[in-house]
Amino acid sequence: MRALLLQTARTGATVNHMVQYIEARLDASFAALSDATRRGVLAQLGCADASITDLADKFRMTLTGMKKHVGVLERAGLVTTEKVGRVRTCKLGPRRLEEEVMWIERYRQLWDARFDELDQVVEELKRKERVNERRKK
Amino acid sequence: MRALLLQTARTGATVNHMVQYIEARLDASFAALSDATRRGVLAQLGCADASITDLADKFRMTLTGMKKHVGVLERAGLVTTEKVGRVRTCKLGPRRLEEEVMWIERYRQLWDARFDELDQVVEELKRKERVNERRKK
Questions:
Q1: Are A92 and B104 within 8 A, CB to CB?
Q2: Which backbone phi and psi does B41 adopt, to 5 degrees?
Q3: pTM for the predicted model, two decimal places
Q4: How far apart (Å, rounded) are the C-alpha atoms in residues B79 and B71?
Q5: Which residues in chain A have their CB less than 8 angstroms from residue B26's CB?
Q6: A64-101: per-residue pLDDT in tens?
Q7: Which residues of B touch A22 (CB under 8 A)?
Q8: Closest listed residue to residue A76, CA positions, set A18, A21, A27
Q9: Given A27, A106, A108, which is nearest B35 (Cβ)?
């Protein structure tokens, strides 16, 4: 029994760790996506790999500014970079935004259900109003 | 001709304004989603409306802290609030995250195409290697 309790506690801790890990990833990726330049960089790398210098030119930005943006994207797993000689090349990272889409999809289901509920409340109120008016006549 | 040029310039300006408007909305909504508490608040309001006090209790947070989070969600159009007497009730806002899903979907298409391309390059390299090895024999 004690072993079972211990195992359950461990499984609970593992699930907790996993949830925290996913939440931290969602924090990082949504923050990475919250900037028009960073979204532009992702779209650009979706067409072709590019060096930091190319990207800085393209988005009319200083090298330092672009390095910061690429750093944010890299930490979120959305971009990977590789330095060959003096050139750092950026390419799309391993993350396909699966968890982000799953989160938004779940939210939209809640949203739809919530607004359907409100529609029903409004319909019910309208129905009662019609009944009351008929009674007054 | 001058009128046409003027109109084209105007249409261009309108399109530019629209793009800027959508980009600003994406900035705001992705930033709003980049915090686990704010995502939790949205999920909570997807089940039932709640006052700021309820939400502060639920997420073990000060009223001031929760007001800030709700403010961020409200400015992104994800939450609306209404004050009746001394209680401010929060409910889901009008935005269903359509543009955010569209952005992510477009990104995933690019991502898929980009990785398919890389797969083809790897396949081509493997094929050449096999041909070279056969020649050596």
A1: no
A2: -60, -45
A3: 0.81
A4: 9
A5: 33-34, 36, 39
A6: 999 999 999 999 999 999 998 999 999 999 888 999 99
A7: none
A8: A27
A9: A27
